Fold:
Amino acid sequence: MSKIEDYNKTAQVYNSRYRDTQFEKYKIMLDGIKLKGKILDHGCGTGLLSEFLGEEMVGVDSSQEMLKIRGEGVHSDVEDMPFKDEIFDVVLSFSVLMNCRNLERAIEEIKRVSKSDGFVICTFLKAFESKIKPILEKHFEIIEKKQCGEDVGFILNPYK
Ligand SMILES: C[S@@+](CC[C@H](N)C(=O)[O-])C[C@H]1O[C@@H](n2cnc3c(N)ncnc32)[C@H](O)[C@@H]1O
Structure:
């Protein structure tokens, strides 16, 4: 079964299982951060991040069942997003990248849709750091690295 089929199957229980865990990650990563402009909730799932922030954001996810719970969002693979270049001021990606089949492509896509003066926050399971961090370093300047529970998180600036 693909990861997206897994998310489709477990969408109904996602919020009750993971709300507290995800909210803790949001608190750690977004502490002291000012969000403004157009925000992308990358791999938005059921919409826990917009519930936490109370902010209007564009959500993108490839699981229809997760999106149904969020209410609205763009149904797309994050490896090929239907957005114009350099349109987001902020990209927030919580617990998504380790699911991507082509990491290089997914990270290039985040960079493509980010404004040059914008920033990106991403987290993923710690076990994936050795695989994902070198690709992040190729495309972004790492401003800060934080430990956030089961994840490691990065605040990034795009190199343009
Ligand atoms: C662990 S959940 C995190 C959801 C949300 N970011 C949160 O904080 O609760 C991972 C999400 O990434 C989505 N996802 C995984 N791989 C994806 C891909 N290649 N394209 C789009 N969405 C993807 C899944 O459907 C799922 O909703």
Summary: The longest strand covers residues 114-125. The helical segments are 3-30, 48-53, 64-70, 103-113, 129-139.
